[in-house]
Amino acid sequence: MTMTLEELAKTVAKRAKADPEDSWTARLIAKGPEKCAEKFGEEAIEAIIEAAKGNRAGLTAEAADVLFHFLVMLEARKVPLSDVMDELAKRQKRSGLAEKAARKGL
Ligand SMILES: N=c1c2ncn([C@@H]3O[C@H](COP(=O)(O)OP(=O)(O)OP(=O)(O)O)[C@@H](O)[C@H]3O)c2ncn1[C@@H]1O[C@H](COP(=O)(O)O)[C@@H](O)[C@H]1O
């Protein structure tokens, strides 16, 4: 069983409109975009800790939390996942090092 980020983003958009009594997504969204961003940051730190420890199972679980809360943060600010993917697609023709060098030249 696998799922795509696009599928999860659709679930997040749907659950954002649910009753906060019944949905973690709706509860977070109801607290506002700043809280959603803060929660994403907390989950990212938990993932960093597991990565630093070399705990693969822990990192897998925390990475899932990061991706879910990343999508909630985007939903809270109404940034579509497709815009993020389009931004990545634009970068596909250029290596990250070349992009960094070009930015330094600005
Ligand atoms: N993928 C997730 C998902 N990942 C994590 N979480 C929730 O995120 C919350 C994280 O809370 P906490 O930080 O308090 O928990 P913690 O990270 O264990 O932290 P500690 O308290 O242990 O330090 C938990 O309640 C998890 O259940 C998620 N909640 C929902 N989803 C997806 O969203 C769908 C809709 O969920 P609802 O919005 O709840 O209906 C679900 O069917 C899933 O597909």
From TrEMBL:
The keyword Nucleotide-binding applies. GO terms for biological process: L-histidine biosynthetic process. Pfam families: PRA-PH (PF01503). This is Phosphoribosyl-ATP pyrophosphatase. The gene is hisE. It comes from the Bacteria. Belongs to the PRA-PH family. It catalyses: 1-(5-phospho-beta-D-ribosyl)-ATP + H2O = 1-(5-phospho-beta-D-ribosyl)-5'-AMP + diphosphate + H(+). Pathway: Amino-acid biosynthesis; L-histidine biosynthesis; L-histidine from 5-phospho-alpha-D-ribose 1-diphosphate: step 2/9. HAMAP family: HisE. One of its GO terms (molecular function) is ATP binding. Its EC number is 3.6.1.31. It is found in: Cytoplasm. Keywords: Amino-acid biosynthesis, ATP-binding, Cytoplasm, Histidine biosynthesis, Hydrolase, Nucleotide-binding. The keyword Cytoplasm applies. InterPro entries: HisE (IPR008179), PRib-ATP_PPHydrolase-like (IPR021130). One of its GO terms (cellular component) is cytoplasm. NCBIfam families: histidine_hisI, PRK00400.1-5.
